[in-house]
Amino acid sequence: MATIMLAEDEAVLRMLIGDTLEDEGHELDIACDGEEALQKIGQNEYDLIILDYMMPKLTGFEVLQQLKQMDDKKAVKVLILSAKSQHAEQEKMREAGADDFMPKPFSPMDLVRKVEEMLA
Questions:
Q1: C-alpha torsion angle, residues 9, 80, 67, 38 (rounded to 10)
Q2: Rounded to whole angstroms, what are the CA distances from 101 to 11, 56, 71, 108?
Q3: d(C-alpha 119, C-alpha 22), whole Å
Q4: pTM of the predicted model as reported, rounded to 2 decimal places
Q5: Phi first, then psi: what are they for 27, rounded to 5°?
Q6: C-alpha count within 13 angstroms, C-beta hemisphere, residue 15
Q7: Which CATH number describes the domain made up of 3-119?
Q8: Which of 58, 59, 64, 113 has its CA 20 to 30 A from that of 33?
Q9: Nearest to 115 by CA among 43, 37, 49, 57
Q10: 119 vs 99: CA distance, rounded Å
Q11: Which residue pairs, CB below 8 angstroms and at least 24 apart, start in 97-105?
Q12: Does residue 103 come out as left (phi exceeding 0), alpha (psi in the -120 to 50 range) or beta?
């Protein structure tokens, strides 16, 4: 299956998403804030990066902007998770290079479907 980076600052959500994706056979690398996520992204290869929009140290948007400046990481697919689900926010993320956007709250099975769709 795929190797996925999950950057989420909420411990319960991190555990729920992590367990769900691991149950589907994916290998997960987890970061608790944007700074840690960016560091791991620079050191590892991922098939998909899932970023929470609002995180400490660096937001998911800031991580996305820096990620898209890395020549060897530009092609990595990025899914943004956010409680900010207004159309303008989604467009801002897509213009910055996000491949898709998932509003919070969401069901674990909806996330699995979205991940599988993005990895296909």
A1: 10
A2: 20, 19, 23, 15
A3: 15
A4: 0.94
A5: -95, 130
A6: 3
A7: 3.40.50.2300
A8: 113
A9: 49
A10: 11
A11: 97/64, 97/65, 97/67, 97/68, 98/51, 98/64
A12: beta
Tokens of 20: 């769900």
Place of tokens 């411990």: 11
Tokens linked to 63:
């991580």
Backbone angles phi, psi at 52, to 5 degrees: -75, 140
From first to last of its 120 residues, the chain has per-residue pLDDT tens of 899 999 999 999 999 999 999 999 999 999 999 999 999 999 999 999 999 999 999 999 999 999 999 888 878 999 999 887 678 888 888 898 999 999 989 998 999 999 999 999
Helix axes 87-96, 60-67, angle to 10 degrees: 30
**Residue 98 backbone zone (phi > 0: left; psi -120 to 50: alpha; other: beta):** beta
